[in-house]
Amino acid sequence: MSLYQTLSPGYYDLIIADESHRSIYSRYKAILDHFDALNLGLTATPTDFLEHNTFELFDCHDDTPTFYYGYDEAVRDTHLVPYRPVHVARTRFQIEGLKPGELPDEVKQQVREQGLDPEQFSFDGSDLERRVTNSGTNDAVVREFMDHSIKDAVGALPAKTIVFAVSHKHAIELYKSFNRLYPDLQRRGLAKVIDSQMERAEKTLDDFKNKEFPRVAISVDMLDTGIDVPAIRNLIFAKPVFSKVKFWQMLGRGTRTWTDPVSGQKKADFLVIDHWDNFDYFQVNKDGRAGDVAEPLPTRLFRLRLEKLQVLAGRADTDSVAYTTDQLRRLVGALPLENVNVAPHAEEIHALVDSDHRWQQLTEDRIAFLAHTLAPLLRFSVAGSYVELQFENQTEQLALAHLKADEGEVKRLRERITDHLALLPTNIPEVRSNLEALAAAQSEAFWATLSCPRIMSLQETFAPLMRFRNRRPPGTFVRLSLPDKIQQRHWIAFGPSGEGAFAETYRAKVEALVKDLAGDSPALQRLSRGQDLSAEDIDAVAAVLGGPDLFVTVQRLREAYRQPKAGLADFLRHILNISRLPSREETISQAFDEWVRQNPQLTATQIMFVRTLRKAVMQKAEVSSVEALRKPPFSTIGDPEQLFKKPQLTQLFQLVQSLAA
Fold this sequence. Notes:
Helix content is 46%, strand content 6%. The protein folds into five domains: 2-68, no CATH class; 128-281, P-loop containing nucleotide triphosphate hydrolases (Rossmann fold, 3-Layer(aba) Sandwich), CATH 3.40.50; 297-468, no CATH class; 491-575, no CATH class; 584-660. The strands form three sheets. It has a six-stranded parallel beta sheet, sandwiched between helices. By secondary structure, it is mainly alpha-helical.
């Protein structure tokens, strides 16, 4: 460090100081002061403290850098990724603290056992993990993370995550919460403490960077700055931060671009869970970028097999029913009963694993329980690899498409499945022993004589081999068969002189107008409080909206939003985020579901026919006569006039016509 003093002040013409916010401190500043050179400072987080001012050191007046390249600009240029809307989650203890006279009896006893007087016991929320620790608070933090974090490609486990803890003791308490709530995942090494007080911290950090586990690094200062793990998708602020420089350094841990080597998907964003209102403290925008939530592959697989069992239940294929039941039982049997999310359902899980009876009596309530309560828990099971689960999902989709006689879907899935089979290396023993089955699965004869047993044999044979699948060669042309349409060319004419705008533009203007009026309109304020509007209120709002700017009418709103039956109050609730207008698909689904509820004696075959009709209406197929219902895909299910009584058919046609209007 003292070597620079042996060099003359004119030795260098240019000195570049990376991470130059550190140059303000005497040890490094002395180097810059010694040489008579042009200084170039590079930093993502300049400081403007009175004693340590980066701008002043580099002669940048008015706190304005010579060149500024901001985070938002870097995101736009795809050099960094944005964060999703910040997930703010604070516990009751954090907000209210604990005061004398407010302690529950069990807390008083805990305080006495530690030699303290409950009447003198008082802590603010900010004392958490500094003067007091509460296992319930730490459990809540861990469960919030497990429920809301961005997951891996399979959708089962959290993606790479840093939890910023208050202290080493706090990190250990959070680690204990993971052990207590998710012992099954901790045995696989889900979460580890990585800080300077842990033995082999550097080795654990290397594992976090380069291996599948640990997924969660609970850190105290060590990972706040200076590390580069592009795979990080979640940042958990479990501590308050008071340094703006440090805050942005911590946030920067999630901004790196990355491509998932398993799925090939590029990292689109990352999630921040803020338990201490750090974004508000530093007045940083919390809106972020809205992200998509993918259904975990094990959950999707369970739901596909459950739907397949429902379809098979109305047919005479007892072997396929028994096979599918066994598939479902094995999935349920893999659930870890000690897991905090799974444990409340242990009794029902035991019954499903031990008995065929519960699978044979698929009542509406049981199907709802299996699909909506049990299926989401499958993300905690010890599932297969991404490529194995992906192939199993595709072959289950193929079985369903075959059972429903959906030839278009079968064709689409055939392309995907045969593409995956073609990527299997035939020169390794595991694949070489199945070359005959591989050739058969790629032949025309196989696809011309599909059956459920043949599809399941394909799944059993090749799903375990997908882990050997080669990657697609660079530049491979990917074929997609996705429906598409122009959505932004719906023109709304609204002015007396022919003025008009595209529907999305008109909607945006109307919504801005309504939100602007909401602050001054008593009627809109009552609506925001959940009160219904009177006829006089509706007329008053309509008169204002119909003014000589946008000429808003109910009919124009119906056209702009494609909601032919909505009233003005419905549109106002939608715009003010009180309730949401249903999409076209939701409206169609609700209408058909209501018709099925009104006809409780329908058989499984009749219900399948109605679902096929619903799909046709969603796809805007022409269904105007009985003859149309005798053509594929309906003809493979049955003759409509034999399946339904004449009044039921009449009702169905009336329903279709009303939805097509």
